[in-house]
Amino acid sequence: MAATAHSSASRAEPQLGLRERKKQKTRIAIRDATYRLIREQGYDATTVEQIAEAAEVSPSTVFRYFPTKEDIVLTDEFDPIAEQELRARPADEPWMDSLRYMMRQAIGLGTSEEPEVTRLRTHLMVQVPAVRSRMMESMSVTGRMLCRIIGERTGKDPDGLEVRVFAMSLIGALMETSLYWAEGDHQEDFADLVDRTLDVLENGLTP
Prior knowledge:
The protein is an all-alpha fold. The protein has helices at residues 9-12, 18-41, 48-55, 59-65, 69-74, 78-88, 95-113, 115-127, 129-154, 161-183, 190-203.
Protein backbone atom coordinates (compact mmCIF):
# COMPACT_ATOMS: atom_id res chain seq x y z
CA MET A 1 0.00 0.00 0.00
CA ALA A 2 1.91 2.96 -1.32
CA ALA A 3 4.66 4.16 0.96
CA THR A 4 3.73 1.72 3.67
CA ALA A 5 4.52 -1.16 1.54
CA HIS A 6 7.35 -3.42 2.64
CA SER A 7 8.78 -6.90 2.46
CA SER A 8 7.46 -9.21 5.13
CA ALA A 9 10.23 -11.78 4.75
CA SER A 10 11.40 -11.60 8.35
CA ARG A 11 7.88 -11.93 9.71
CA ALA A 12 6.58 -14.59 7.32
CA GLU A 13 9.60 -16.82 6.79
CA PRO A 14 9.21 -19.08 9.86
CA GLN A 15 5.75 -20.08 8.62
CA LEU A 16 6.86 -20.97 5.09
CA GLY A 17 7.90 -24.32 3.69
CA LEU A 18 11.15 -24.89 1.80
CA ARG A 19 9.60 -24.33 -1.64
CA GLU A 20 7.98 -21.06 -0.59
CA ARG A 21 11.20 -19.88 1.03
CA LYS A 22 13.05 -20.51 -2.22
CA LYS A 23 10.43 -18.53 -4.12
CA GLN A 24 10.66 -15.72 -1.64
CA LYS A 25 14.45 -15.71 -1.88
CA THR A 26 14.19 -15.39 -5.67
CA ARG A 27 11.66 -12.56 -5.38
CA ILE A 28 13.88 -10.68 -2.96
CA ALA A 29 16.95 -11.19 -5.19
CA ILE A 30 15.07 -9.76 -8.18
CA ARG A 31 13.77 -6.78 -6.21
CA ASP A 32 17.15 -6.03 -4.60
CA ALA A 33 18.85 -6.15 -8.00
CA THR A 34 16.21 -3.82 -9.42
CA TYR A 35 16.59 -1.26 -6.64
CA ARG A 36 20.39 -1.35 -6.96
CA LEU A 37 20.34 -0.83 -10.72
CA ILE A 38 17.78 1.97 -10.50
CA ARG A 39 19.92 3.79 -7.94
CA GLU A 40 22.97 3.42 -10.17
CA GLN A 41 21.54 4.27 -13.58
CA GLY A 42 17.94 5.39 -13.25
CA TYR A 43 14.60 3.73 -13.86
CA ASP A 44 14.29 4.10 -17.63
CA ALA A 45 17.82 2.84 -18.29
CA THR A 46 17.26 -0.31 -16.23
CA THR A 47 16.07 -3.25 -18.33
CA VAL A 48 14.56 -6.59 -17.34
CA GLU A 49 17.55 -8.30 -18.98
CA GLN A 50 19.93 -6.35 -16.72
CA ILE A 51 17.82 -7.17 -13.69
CA ALA A 52 17.82 -10.86 -14.55
CA GLU A 53 21.59 -10.90 -14.95
CA ALA A 54 22.15 -9.08 -11.67
CA ALA A 55 19.76 -11.41 -9.83
CA GLU A 56 21.32 -14.48 -11.53
CA VAL A 57 18.04 -15.67 -13.02
CA SER A 58 16.58 -15.73 -16.52
CA PRO A 59 14.38 -12.94 -17.91
CA SER A 60 11.52 -15.46 -18.08
CA THR A 61 11.92 -16.07 -14.35
CA VAL A 62 11.68 -12.34 -13.70
CA PHE A 63 8.44 -12.17 -15.67
CA ARG A 64 7.10 -15.24 -13.88
CA TYR A 65 7.38 -13.42 -10.58
CA PHE A 66 6.62 -9.90 -11.81
CA PRO A 67 4.51 -9.27 -14.93
CA THR A 68 6.03 -5.82 -15.52
CA LYS A 69 9.07 -3.83 -14.44
CA GLU A 70 6.76 -1.55 -12.49
CA ASP A 71 5.54 -4.55 -10.50
CA ILE A 72 9.09 -5.30 -9.34
CA VAL A 73 9.23 -1.87 -7.75
CA LEU A 74 5.74 -1.94 -6.30
CA THR A 75 4.79 -5.52 -5.44
CA ASP A 76 4.90 -6.32 -1.74
CA GLU A 77 3.31 -8.52 0.90
CA PHE A 78 1.43 -5.73 2.63
CA ASP A 79 -2.18 -6.73 1.91
CA PRO A 80 -2.13 -10.09 3.75
CA ILE A 81 -0.48 -8.42 6.76
CA ALA A 82 -2.96 -5.53 6.74
CA GLU A 83 -5.86 -7.97 6.50
CA GLN A 84 -4.47 -10.03 9.36
CA GLU A 85 -3.97 -6.95 11.54
CA LEU A 86 -7.49 -5.65 10.87
CA ARG A 87 -9.15 -9.00 11.52
CA ALA A 88 -7.29 -9.27 14.83
CA ARG A 89 -8.74 -6.01 16.17
CA PRO A 90 -11.70 -6.16 18.62
CA ALA A 91 -15.00 -6.39 16.79
CA ASP A 92 -16.45 -3.48 18.78
CA GLU A 93 -13.47 -1.18 18.19
CA PRO A 94 -14.36 1.92 16.14
CA TRP A 95 -13.35 1.35 12.54
CA MET A 96 -11.10 4.41 12.32
CA ASP A 97 -9.26 3.29 15.46
CA SER A 98 -8.61 -0.07 13.82
CA LEU A 99 -7.32 1.66 10.71
CA ARG A 100 -5.01 3.90 12.71
CA TYR A 101 -3.58 0.90 14.56
CA MET A 102 -3.01 -1.05 11.33
CA MET A 103 -1.35 1.91 9.63
CA ARG A 104 0.96 2.55 12.59
CA GLN A 105 2.02 -1.09 12.55
CA ALA A 106 2.66 -1.01 8.80
CA ILE A 107 4.53 2.29 8.84
CA GLY A 108 6.67 1.24 11.77
CA LEU A 109 7.70 -2.03 10.15
CA GLY A 110 8.16 -0.58 6.68
CA THR A 111 10.24 2.42 7.65
CA SER A 112 12.40 0.46 10.08
CA GLU A 113 13.15 -2.44 7.72
CA GLU A 114 13.47 -0.67 4.35
CA PRO A 115 13.63 3.11 4.74
CA GLU A 116 15.71 3.62 1.57
CA VAL A 117 13.42 1.39 -0.49
CA THR A 118 10.36 3.21 0.81
CA ARG A 119 11.82 6.54 -0.29
CA LEU A 120 12.90 5.18 -3.65
CA ARG A 121 9.41 3.85 -4.35
CA THR A 122 7.71 7.13 -3.57
CA HIS A 123 10.24 9.10 -5.61
CA LEU A 124 9.52 6.83 -8.57
CA MET A 125 5.78 7.32 -8.05
CA VAL A 126 6.31 11.05 -8.49
CA GLN A 127 8.86 10.90 -11.30
CA VAL A 128 7.70 7.96 -13.46
CA PRO A 129 4.13 8.04 -14.82
CA ALA A 130 4.15 4.28 -15.53
CA VAL A 131 4.99 3.53 -11.89
CA ARG A 132 2.29 5.88 -10.63
CA SER A 133 -0.27 4.33 -12.98
CA ARG A 134 0.63 0.81 -11.92
CA MET A 135 0.46 1.86 -8.28
CA MET A 136 -3.12 3.01 -8.80
CA GLU A 137 -3.98 -0.37 -10.28
CA SER A 138 -2.32 -2.30 -7.46
CA MET A 139 -3.99 -0.20 -4.79
CA SER A 140 -7.39 -1.04 -6.21
CA VAL A 141 -6.66 -4.61 -5.07
CA THR A 142 -6.00 -3.28 -1.58
CA GLY A 143 -9.28 -1.39 -1.84
CA ARG A 144 -11.20 -4.59 -2.53
CA MET A 145 -9.57 -6.19 0.50
CA LEU A 146 -10.69 -3.26 2.63
CA CYS A 147 -14.22 -3.59 1.27
CA ARG A 148 -14.35 -7.18 2.51
CA ILE A 149 -13.12 -6.24 5.97
CA ILE A 150 -15.42 -3.22 6.23
CA GLY A 151 -18.37 -5.35 5.17
CA GLU A 152 -17.62 -7.90 7.85
CA ARG A 153 -17.15 -5.28 10.57
CA THR A 154 -20.19 -3.18 9.69
CA GLY A 155 -22.59 -5.79 8.35
CA LYS A 156 -22.88 -3.80 5.15
CA ASP A 157 -22.66 -5.20 1.64
CA PRO A 158 -18.94 -5.15 0.70
CA ASP A 159 -19.99 -4.41 -2.88
CA GLY A 160 -22.37 -1.66 -1.83
CA LEU A 161 -21.78 1.93 -2.87
CA GLU A 162 -21.12 3.29 0.62
CA VAL A 163 -18.49 0.68 1.46
CA ARG A 164 -16.76 1.04 -1.89
CA VAL A 165 -16.72 4.83 -1.64
CA PHE A 166 -15.21 4.74 1.84
CA ALA A 167 -12.58 2.11 0.98
CA MET A 168 -11.46 3.80 -2.22
CA SER A 169 -11.49 7.21 -0.57
CA LEU A 170 -9.01 5.81 1.92
CA ILE A 171 -6.89 4.28 -0.85
CA GLY A 172 -6.82 7.52 -2.81
CA ALA A 173 -6.03 9.53 0.30
CA LEU A 174 -3.09 7.30 1.22
CA MET A 175 -1.70 7.49 -2.29
CA GLU A 176 -1.89 11.28 -2.24
CA THR A 177 -0.22 11.25 1.17
CA SER A 178 2.66 9.21 -0.25
CA LEU A 179 3.02 11.58 -3.20
CA TYR A 180 2.92 14.62 -0.91
CA TRP A 181 5.62 13.07 1.28
CA ALA A 182 7.87 12.37 -1.70
CA GLU A 183 7.30 15.80 -3.26
CA GLY A 184 8.55 17.28 0.02
CA ASP A 185 11.68 15.11 -0.23
CA HIS A 186 10.54 13.03 2.75
CA GLN A 187 11.28 15.85 5.17
CA GLU A 188 8.07 15.40 7.18
CA ASP A 189 7.28 12.41 9.36
CA PHE A 190 5.21 9.99 7.30
CA ALA A 191 3.32 8.62 10.30
CA ASP A 192 2.22 12.17 11.19
CA LEU A 193 1.05 12.74 7.62
CA VAL A 194 -1.01 9.55 7.70
CA ASP A 195 -2.58 10.63 11.00
CA ARG A 196 -3.51 13.94 9.40
CA THR A 197 -4.96 12.08 6.44
CA LEU A 198 -7.12 9.88 8.63
CA ASP A 199 -8.26 12.98 10.54
CA VAL A 200 -9.53 14.48 7.28
CA LEU A 201 -11.35 11.28 6.35
CA GLU A 202 -12.89 11.03 9.81
CA ASN A 203 -13.78 14.66 10.44
CA GLY A 204 -13.73 16.38 7.04
CA LEU A 205 -12.00 19.70 6.41
CA THR A 206 -12.04 21.86 9.50
CA PRO A 207 -11.92 25.68 9.33
